[in-house]
């Protein structure tokens, strides 16, 4: 489906397709809808990025809080969004040893206690080893720098989800 087809979508269909490009934040594609007609998918992505950047710090933290923990309880109970489930599987989190699960749980809790939002990283671009190393390292970051790093990861996740929409053959996807 090309950009003309995207521009021809109803608002409801647009949201059905783009609603989770930022995890559990359909308000973001809903907000960029006003910028139609889009010139390309990269144009949509740029509007999403600008919208995120325009938010106050509390809004950016809100976006981060919509992300599930990596290797958390939702992964175990099968309660993740399909996107997140596939991303966490790609990084190797569906295949952890019990000791790795407890290590991730304890690092995630320590991180959340320190920053007030979950540790976010683009799982598709990292292995579980990279992620554990990065999580540990980020615990030492300054809160503002850490929020900025995490928002950068949200944008990477969004970019890959948008690319996935383009390639998917499923009937309600691009
Ligand atoms: N916490 C966190 O990073 N979650 C995520 N990362 C990713 O690539 N998909 C997610 O749901």
Automatic annotation (TrEMBL):
* Listed Gene3D superfamilies: Oxo-4-hydroxy-4-carboxy-5-ureidoimidazoline decarboxylase
Q: Which GO terms describe its molecular function?
A: 2-oxo-4-hydroxy-4-carboxy-5-ureidoimidazoline decarboxylase activity
| CC per GO annotation | peroxisome
- Reaction it catalyzes: 5-hydroxy-2-oxo-4-ureido-2,5-dihydro-1H-imidazole-5-carboxylate + H(+) = (S)-allantoin + CO2
Enumerate the subcellular locations listed in this protein's record, separating them with semicolons: Peroxisome
Q: What is its main location?
A: other
- Every copy of the Oxo-4-hydroxy-4-carboxy-5-ureidoimidazoline decarboxylase domain together lies at 7-163
Q: Which UniProt keywords apply?
A: Decarboxylase, Lyase, Peroxisome, Purine metabolism
Taxonomically, the superkingdom here is: Eukaryota
Q: Lyase: present as a keyword of the record? A: yes
List the InterPro entries: OHCU_decarboxylase (IPR018020), OHCU_decarboxylase-1 (IPR017580), OHCU_decarboxylase_sf (IPR036778)
Task: Choose any GO biological process term that the UniProt entry carries and state it.
Answer: allantoin metabolic process
Which EC number(s) does the record attach to this protein? 4.1.1.97
Its function?
Catalyzes the stereoselective decarboxylation of 2-oxo-4-hydroxy-4-carboxy-5-ureidoimidazoline (OHCU) to (S)-allantoin.
Tell me its family: Belongs to the OHCU decarboxylase family.
Q: What PANTHER family is this protein classified in?
A: 2-OXO-4-HYDROXY-4-CARBOXY-5-UREIDOIMIDAZOLINE DECARBOXYLASE-RELATED (PTHR43466:SF1)
What is the protein name for this chain? 2-oxo-4-hydroxy-4-carboxy-5-ureidoimidazoline decarboxylase
